[in-house]
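SAMPLE LOG
Freezer: B-3
Tube label: C17
Construct: single chain, 504 aa
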Amino acid sequence: MLLLSPPVQTHEWLTNKPNAGLAYPNLAGALRDHGVDVRIFDASVGDDDDPLEEMFAHPTLLPTGFLRTGVGDERILQVAADYDIVGISSIFTDQETTALHCARLIRAAYPDKVLITGGVNARSRMSRFFAAGFDVVCLSEGEATIVDIVDAVRRSHRPDYSAIHGIAYVDSSGVTRVKPPRAQDVVWDLDTLPMPAWDLLPNERYWTLARPIGTGKSETLRYANMMTSLGCPFHCSYCHISKEQEVGSLSGPIGKFRVKSDSRVLAELDVLKDLGVQDLFIEDDSLLGDKKRALRLLGKIQGSGFNISDLNGINVLHLLKRWQPDHEVLEALASAGFSEISLPFETGSLRLMRKYASNKLNIERANIQSLIVAMKEYGFTIYGHYMLGYPDETMEELQQTLQLARDHVSYGLDGAHFFVVVPLPGTTLYDQVIADGLHKEDFDPDTMNIHRANMTGALIPREELEEIRHRAWEEINTTSYKNSKKSTVPRTTPTDVVAAQRAS
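STRUCTURE (predicted):
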């Protein structure tokens, strides 16, 4: 089986940060344990036979205006030739185009290969994925499901998927069959999951580029991503977890908060250390969701030697105790090796926080000034994340968020990041805006990213919202921070190269 991560497409003014994601090593670990010959091929960086620096210095200009970075179509077909099954994950909507392109490419060249996909985007837009040539869409967590699919393929060149739960497929009569996972299909004991096969990722090529997701560092980094828990105690409407709560849903209740044991986490750290990893990015949706467990685990991680950064954001509420800084937690994070932490403040409006963000922080009671000051004293680099453009957000509420960010920077926040609210498929927010007529179901997936306003008819017009977001970053962040971002983070390709490609 080949696990193929497609080439990446980006705007010319964004940094291309290759990241096959944790789905690939997780699935590869399960397949390897089952005796399957499995390979991960990240087409955005290739392998030792592909010119890494050339691909990143001269990406391909697409007709859409995006830049594609990675190997060409012929190389993808060359790699896919030797495999019976090809799996392509599709989590992020703005990368849907490349996933579907790879599927069409492989289906046309190799009509007998089995193509499978999964991820919240594929699950939410399965009709488009079937139309592109996929045979199976995995609806939930895939470590067990992918093994079941492999066994079905092993039994027959015309596999029967009817006994497998947690998938959708097109049967022999052309009818789409959807079989949601059962409660017993959800992995409640995370220690039973196979060890991720991080060794199958093109780590040396990632480290050479030194462009990990979630940081602006430019020096060579020996990094990897991991998760110590799954799910989240919150279910914000703009997050896919909002639709992953109930038995009988397409995904099943995989959004429920679940944790790995301390011993399992330490075992994973040992595997990563043996690979030579030094910088660790934690992708937990809620690392401190169980504070007692987190404190115990952080104590055991102390002295592990990793430089640790939080990638998805630690909920601000979990850094507080009776609305004041929780020094026990802050000290534990610092002692464990955490250096960078993102704080998801979301909005300066308590109304919007309650309506869209699970009411997860009372910004009127929380002493954020003291928290930021304390975090700087512990030596953290901290970033604030702010969301702009909720469907019914007023200009007054938006200005409250901008003022909140200004205050936080004045307290010592290192950088403020502003994101446009995007109604992504697979979230309750998406369902809401479709029902309210604020978004069309036949949207262009290339536009579904945190820099673009997508809703039509929201209180703040799209063009104005994008301009406010851009201006906020420039005006609220310090000059030193802006200069550091502009000087240390390489853009996808030089402007003159883009101009030459357009001219030709």
